[in-house]
């Protein structure tokens, strides 16, 4: 229960983080906001990495693994975060949260290329989630909105990012890998921002609240909670609880941004959430549970 509570808290933090990201862009452009928040997240993890290093619990791996691992996960994080942040200019926090959550379905599908086992529940969940995506995002004239399209492409990069982290976290300490990927993402974002955006100190100060939440809490604290909790939680249970991030994103959009969801969008959100949950629960468990109830 303590582990599940920490995972739920992390999901809530990430979900409401969509609100902070949206509000932050009232003052800052997407790449500037991302660059600053990920560098803040990097700094927030320095004390934890330093403490673990003092305890002898930090593993660097080989120089090659360290360089490639930090580079790959950092670039994938940059791609996913950039598409998500720019997409928020053209869609709602609720839509962004639910569509981003499709990575939970995409991870096992992409895992096929790595010869990961994929059960029937994944395909059922994927089908239901796609139908939900249609009701949530397909506009009149049968086209996907621009912002939703960016979020959908971003979900693909989030899925690849998760698989990359799973691969390299076996070679490098997860907390160190997290800090370094934040650093890579932050630097790349600021380089792009310097090339195409105009940022002033006044704008940064105006966005300080959103940056503090997105950097310190959403990036730094929530990730740490996830790492601590997943030491004691079943992976399937963890994925299901973390998928509730999408629900908190919708709640946050309604509460703080004045967003609203019509019946069609609510149906889409419900189907996407159902698909995400089904994709994480093997059908044999559902059948076994049903059999036990009948018995």
From TrEMBL:
It comes from the Bacteria. It is a multi-pass membrane protein. SUPFAM superfamilies: Multidrug resistance efflux transporter EmrE. Residues 3-137, 147-278 form the EamA domain. The chain crosses the membrane at residues 36-53, 65-83, 89-113, 120-138, 150-169, 176-196, 211-229, 236-257, 263-287. InterPro entries: Diverse_Substrate_Transporter, EamA_dom, EmrE-like. Pfam families: EamA. It is found in: Cell membrane. Keywords: Cell membrane, Membrane, Transmembrane, Transmembrane helix. This is Membrane protein. It comes from Shewanella decolorationis S12.
